[in-house]
Structures are given as C-alpha cells and as structure tokens.
Automatic annotation (TrEMBL):
Sample GO molecular function, one term: 2-dehydro-3-deoxy-phosphogluconate aldolase activity
Family: Belongs to the KHG/KDPG aldolase family.
Assembly and oligomerization: Homotrimer.
Protein name according to UniProt: 2-dehydro-3-deoxy-phosphogluconate aldolase
Organism per entry: Streptomyces reniochalinae
Recorded catalytic activity of this chain's protein: 2-dehydro-3-deoxy-6-phospho-D-gluconate = D-glyceraldehyde 3-phosphate + pyruvate
SUPFAM superfamilies noted in UniProt: Aldolase
One Pfam family, short name: Aldolase
Length: 210
C-alpha cells in the first residue's frame, strides 16, 4: 500500500474478506476460520459499534491474522482503528483530509476510487495501490482493463459486487492484485456460528484466480 516500509496487504492473499461484525464474541473464531482457510488479511468494517473491539480482539488473539479496518471515513476513524490494532486501513473513497490522516498513521492504506480522475489524483500524490469501489457498479472488469494501459502503475483491490463467480475474471487483470468480498461469509453460517463452513469457503476463495 502507501507506506513503503510495510509489505503490501495486496500481496497476502488473492481475496480479502470484508467482515461486518455485530458481536465481538464472533471476532476471534471467525478470524481463526478465515486464517485456517488461507485468507490472513481480514478487513473489519467500521459499520457497527462492535467493530473497534472486534479489531482489538483479533489483533490480540489471532496474531497470524493481518487485521485491518474498512469503511474508514475520516481522521477519527483512522485514530480509532489504529488504536484498536488495525494493521491496514481501507476507505470507500478519499479526500485530502482523509488521505493526510491515513498517511500520518504510518499504517498501510487503500483509498477508494471509482473514476479515472481519482486514480490520476492519487498517483499525483504518490499513492499507487487503491481500492476500486463499488467495482461492479463502477464498470467492473471492463473498466479496470481499460485503465491498465494508460495507468499501468496503479494496482487495485476491487470490492463491491465481487463474488465467487467473477473473482477469477478480476484477478486475471494485470492491474488487479487481489479482490475484496463477502461470499465466504454467508449470513446463515455466521448466524449459526458455523466456523467450519466459513473455513471451507475461505479455502475455496483462497484458490481464486489460480
């Protein structure tokens, strides 16, 4: 991502699970299941009150996981996430204020883009690794393919509408390093706390693009 001293989260696995947690008690067993399935980079979205404590629990109890914070929208989110132990930050979009806060955190980050102008603006600011969101709604694989020739220095993690059915098509693109998604986290499995099923689905997702 954007901190040169840190290894890129984009290269940890072909898929980054995007997790929404309502119950902190689910955080550790869920993270263990994902890691066991071969998906060590885990994005916990800051969409629920439980998210910061869930990040903290995973960071403390599952050291083999690389836990990050998603839906980072401003400096307060950056501070909250880093204090909880987030090892990377993901935003659905970006502003200069948010970008400055993420840079100042010294934690790797993926700012979100959905247009060519946003990509060029980030490249001007020295950022080469980005989240492409909402991927399917913003043009999907065709749009990203069209960016590869004029903007080859940009690398993307598409998220939003990415599924088991289309993940391979994204990962085949030269400017896509990994994808983000939720298909290995079906709602009924989470409600039943069926961590074995989550692990099995994560193992399938870990082979995406191969």
């Amino acid at each position: 991502m954007s901190s040169p001293a840190a290894p890129s989260v984009l290269d940890l696995a072909p898929v980054i699970p995007v997790v929404v947690l309502d119950d902190v008690e689910d955080a550790v067993p869920l993270a263990r299941a994902l890691v066991a399935g071969g998906l060590p980079a885990i994005e916990v979205t800051l969409r629920t009150p439980a998210a910061p404590e869930a990040i903290r629990a995973i960071a403390e109890a599952v050291p083999e996981a690389v836990v990050g914070a998603g839906t980072v929208l401003g400096p307060d989110h950056v501070r909250e996430a880093v204090e909880a132990g987030a090892r990377f930050l993901v935003s659905p979009g970006w502003t200069d204020t948010l970008l400055e806060a993420m840079r100042a955190s010294h934690v790797p980050f993926l700012p979100g883009v959905s247009t060519t102008s946003e990509v060029v603006a980030l490249l001007e600011r020295g950022v080469r690794e980005m989240k492409f969101f909402p991927a399917e709604a913003a043009g999907g694989t065709a749009y990203l393919k069209s960016l590869a020739s004029p903007l080859p220095q940009a690398r993307f993690c598409p998220t939003g509408g990415v599924s088991a059915a289309n993940a391979g098509s994204y990962l085949a693109l030269p400017n896509v390093a990994c994808v983000g998604g939720t298909w290995m986290l079906p709602g009924d499995a989470l409600a039943a706390k069926d961590w074995d099923r989550v692990e099995a689905l994560a193992a399938q997702a870990a082979t995406a693009g191969r």
